[in-house]
Amino acid sequence: MNDTSKPIDAIRKMSMSAGNTAMIERYRNHFLKEVTDNVEEGEWVNMCMQCGVCAGSCPLGNAWAHPPQEIFMMIRAGKREEVLTSDSMWMCTSCYNCIVRCPRKLPITHIMHGLARYAERLGLAPKNQPTRKFAMMFWDNITKTGRANEVTLGIRLYFMHGFVNGIKTALKMLPVGLSMIKTKRMSPLGLVAHSGCKGKNDITKLLKKAREIEEARMKKY
Amino acid sequence: MAKKQYSFYPGCSSEKNASASNYMTSVHAMCDVLDVQLNEIPDWNCCGASVGYAGGGELERLILSARNLAISEQEHKGQDVVATCAACWLATRETKERLESDNQLMRDANQALAEIGLKYEAKQNVRHMVEVLIEDFGYDKLGEKVKKPLEGLKVAGYVGCQTNRPFGIDGESYENPKYLDKLVETMGAEPLGNYDKKVQCCGGALAFSEPEKSQAMIKDIIESAYDHGADIIATPCPVCQMNVEIYQDQINKTYSKNFKMPVVYYSTLMSVAYGKGHRESGLDGQIIPATKLEKFAAK
Ligand code: SF4
Ligand code: SF4
Ligand code: SF4
């Protein structure tokens, strides 16, 4: 190993989670196996015949550094870090174009979501990716109250790029917000009082149990 | 005809003071005419929608809809579950199908549900409101209730993604589904047969996080409606409705356009054609007023 690569390796190691290190050790160079075992619907990746139909199906296609077809190829080629740190999966709009067109019936949408989730779990997802941030806030929002509160969700979203930018975006969105309030399709009171659903303790219990079961299942591999 | 009853999953966007509260208003008006009773699932929770995946794993997401479905089975025996939001329908139906076809997942889900005293057996069908209209009534029956045919109103039927894929409605094609056009025609209005952005994605939840990219697609959806001579856009999905209606000012600025295209729900058209008034049809919830449709409501 040459000297110049050492500090980079050290920094890289520090930024990776313990879970990630464990997975690297466990699977060594078998990234396809790692995906098969741990990613939602990951066992399908092996079935892709590289026809390219899905690559032309994503509405935000030109924003994908690696379209689904390429991601599947990279998984098989063992390009672990490139795949998991990519922001491509986060460009998926859940339009389901790919699913209805794929000749091999791969559940591509779910695999994209699954890869994004897996990267997130291992701490490899790009931190400032806007959809990642929004999606994490959304989850936080619904799991706390049991229902989505569009107002707090919207406001946190427009402030997520930092305070100054937040004000700029919030001002840009202000007319939209005001027209929503005027037509009674948004309530400024949502900020302080949102009832959520009554069983929110149940929801917390339920999700805790579900996570336990999932983690136990992952350890099995 | 006897009253039809369904176990109803309204979803967060339909709540009072939320973005699709006007959708709910028109759905209730429409159901009143059709003698449909919607029994709300008690204390339902959010389905996790399409962006739940980042924070929640597979079981965590599925369990959210499984709770709603389990309560529904218990409280509304023998009824089909019906959702009005496309994303809700998709997430809920997906949950039913995934659990039904995977014994391990079903066992895991029930193990978690047992914590809160619930059990799920996948006994009820999960359907979109549009399926109820088409399959349980049919176009002819729906047409019989029309009091004010929407004559001369040119409607771009914007189907979007999630009522159309992956499940589809009434076995229609994914690339050119006709059900919305047929509903429009049944109400006496004029569907645009060649509206080419019918199934174009509007960006969905990414309209929040990737506004520029999404608005570029929304621009095309509206522009094509104008090009084909539409007076109005109608849609079956609250996410589509919101995305296509509320950003028009911003799109006008970015692309130097003069868009002012009203976007309503199929249920808005139906309420008005069924003789309901301005407010009952949810027309007061339009950010861009549906002027031509309002005229029918005022007649
Ligand atoms: S459409 Fe299906 S088979 Fe073709 S490249 Fe995409 S995933 Fe592979
Ligand atoms: S669902 Fe996602 S992966 Fe599939 S075509 Fe749409 S954007 Fe692409
Ligand atoms: S999809 Fe939207 S409306 Fe439906 S439950 Fe989830 S957040 Fe609520």
Output the CATH class name of the largest domain in chain B.
Answer: Alpha Beta
Integer tally of domains of chain A: 2
SSE string of chain B, helices as H and strands as E: EHEHEHHEHHEHEHHEHHEHH
Order of helices and strands of chain A: HHHHHHHHHHH
The helix-and-strand class of chain A reads mainly alpha
Q: Are there runs of chain B of 5+ residues with pLDDT below 50, and where?
A: none
- Helix content estimate of chain B: 40-55%
Explain this structure to me?
The complex is a heterodimer of chains A (221) and B (299). Chain A has 221 residues and is mainly α. Helices cover 58% and strands 0% of the residues of chain A. Chain A has eleven helices and no strands. In chain A, α8 packs antiparallel against α9. The N terminus of chain A is likely disordered. With 299 residues, chain B is of the alpha/beta class. Chain B has two domains: 126 residues, Glutathione S-transferase Yfyf (Class Pi), Chain A, domain 2; 155 residues, 3-Layer(aba) Sandwich (Rossmann fold), CATH 3.40.50. Helices cover 46% and strands 10% of the residues of chain B. In chain B, α3 packs across α4. The model of chain B has no long low-confidence stretch (mean pLDDT 93). The chains are: A mainly alpha (221), B alpha/beta (299). Chains A and B meet through α6, α7, α8, α9 and α10 of A and α2, α4 and α8 of B. The complex binds iron/sulfur cluster (SF4) (3 copies). The site of one iron/sulfur cluster has 14 residues of chain A, from α6 and α7.
Search tags:
heterodimer, A: 221 residues, mainly alpha, Fumarate Reductase Iron-sulfur Protein, Chain B, domain 2, 2 domains, 11 helices, globular, disordered N terminus, B: 299 residues, alpha/beta, Glutathione S-transferase Yfyf (Class Pi), Chain A, domain 2, Rossmann fold, four-stranded parallel β-sheet, 13 helices, 8 strands, 46% helix, binds iron/sulfur cluster
